[in-house]
Amino acid sequence: MSKPPSKRRPVELSLEDQINLIKELEMFPKPTLRILSEKYRVGQSTIGDIVRK
Hints:
The chain has 53 residues and is mostly helical. It has a domain at 22-52. It contains 3 helices and no strands. It has helices spanning 15-26, 33-40, 44-52. It is elongated, with a radius of gyration of 14 Å. This is HTH psq-type domain-containing protein.
């Protein structure tokens, strides 16, 4: 039998990184979620979740 796929470990940004990310989003021109996700090495959905908080 084959092994079940392993779950991915959730990635959490530090509070300082989250604050920096929000400040970057408020700048003009606005960076895209894709650019921010590549910079902070997290998924776009993680960036979207932080923005919605």
